[in-house]
Design brief:
This protein has a single domain, classed as TIM Barrel (Alpha-Beta Barrel). 39% of the residues lie in helices and 17% in strands. It contains twelve helices and twelve strands. It has an eight-stranded parallel barrel, surrounded by five helices. The chain has a two-stranded antiparallel sheet with strand order 3-4. It has a two-stranded antiparallel ribbon with strand order 6-7. Strand 1 (38-44), helix 2 (51-59) and strand 2 (64-72) form a beta-alpha-beta unit. Residues 12-28 and 370-390 have low confidence and may be disordered.
Length: 390
């Protein structure tokens, strides 16, 4: 039996055993209602006169349930303590006119304001190594996640965001950012320099616990969503401890998200997908496409296989890239396939795809600049690494 499957079945046994003793049904099910469901669209928060076009695009698509807003920290705080929320406010105003739910995501990492380093925060210098990034090869820096000066500034930002947006009933989720590289996922630069910083696993665990609490305090009614991805060489137990902490303290709101959803094959065997499978009965969870369907779709794969992966893990919501989200034909096709798959169930829908010849057992995608398709996701590692002791 595969190790992760054994661990999941063992966890289920102990939950059933605990239920038999205590009679507490909450041990066997996700707590609280689903705050996010259906199809969501990623949307960068931009300045200028783009609000009108954005509003028209959202209004024109009846298949969208919400919008995932994201902006870099340096775009709203250029001087310490002087926050400019105008771009966020303008975008949120559009969604309020429509009555559309939204998630708020703030990116630190390479989007950390320069003043943080000028105040003495320690930086980690590296280069962009993802060939899918437009700034591939560029020199960049991120703050060391446990640096006290970085944390002082980022914690102030979170508190101010909560004061401004937590009372909005349309704001239903925030992203648990704190230790990031170029996105809202848990990625950090994969370089050996981290080893010179001591027990970085224990330090990062402390960072995630601290900011799980800070985001949850600033946004007491919203989901706090962790974007899962492999972090350096840390084992599976590192991620489980973060999830266990979040679920134990905020069972109705702590959410985990797989951001590497594909339709190239079944995603089982990838760390973030397997974690969603492991905790699907205890934590709210959803998915984000690894790429778009609208631009040829080779990296993303087929809609049908992606839907199969979502249904296999009982995904509550699905975030689409913006190009797919504003395309009514694409979102209609996804929504229809997802509805059919939920009706048939994982086994029934898989049988349907096999009978139609659309089931994919092998991943034949070859990303540019890399040699093996299994490395296309970047954050995933082999099972022996994931199962290694802390």
């Amino acid at each position: 039996m595969p190790p992760l499957k054994f661990r999941r079945e063992l966890r289920t046994f102990w939950c059933v055993f605990a239920f038999a003793i205590s009679g507490d049904a909450s041990l066997l099910a996700v707590s609280g209602p689903q705050l996010r469901t259906g199809l969501w669209m990623k949307q960068p928060i931009e300045g200028g006169d783009k609000a009108g076009a954005f509003e028209a695009q959202v209004r024109a698509n009846p298949h969208l349930s919400g919008v995932c807003l994201h902006i870099g920290w340096k775009d709203i705080e250029k001087e310490p303590g002087h926050l400019d929320f105008s771009a966020i406010d303008k975008t949120v105003a559009v969604l309020r006119r429509i009555g559309m739910k939204y998630e708020l995501g703030i990116k630190p990492g390479i989007d950390t304001p320069p003043f943080v380093y000028q105040q003495g925060a320690k930086s980690f210098d590296t280069h962009v190594k993802n060939p899918h990034r437009p700034n591939f090869g560029a020199a960049v820096a991120i703050p060391v996640p446990w640096d006290p000066k970085y944390q002082e500034n980022f914690s102030r930002l979170i508190a101010r965001l909560g004061q401004r947006y937590s009372s909005d009933p349309l704001c239903v989720s925030v992203v648990l950012t704190c230790a990031n590289f170029m996105s809202k996922e848990m990625h950090l630069p994969k370089t050996p320099e981290w080893k010179a910083m001591g027990d970085y696993g224990a330090k990062l665990l402390g960072v995630y616990k601290k900011y799980t609490d800070e985001w949850a305090k600033a946004f007491p009614k919203q989901q706090v969503t962790l974007h899962l991805s492999q972090v350096l060489d840390l084992p599976l137990s590192f991620f489980e401890r973060i999830i266990e902490y979040g679920v134990s303290k905020y069972p109705e709101r702590f959410t985990i998200q797989n951001c590497q959803l594909t339709g190239r094959r079944e995603d089982t065997g990838k760390l973030s997908y397997d974690l969603v499978q492991e905790y699907q009965d205890r934590a709210h969870h959803g998915f984000q496409s690894v790429a778009g369907f609208s631009h040829g779709g080779e990296r993303m794969g087929s809609i049908e296989m992606a839907v199969l992966n979502v249904v296999h893990a009982n995904g509550e919501y699905w975030e689409l890239w913006r190009g797919d989200g504003i395309n009514t034909e694409t979102t209609a096709a996804i929504a229809n396939a997802w509805e059919e798959a939920k009706r048939l169930g994982y086994d029934g829908y898989k049988k349907k795809l096999i009978s139609e010849g659309t089931y994919r057992a092998d991943d034949r995608y070859r990303p540019r600049g890399r040699h093996k398709s299994r490395r296309a996701e970047g954050p995933e590692v082999n099972r022996s690494q994931r199962e290694a002791p802390p």
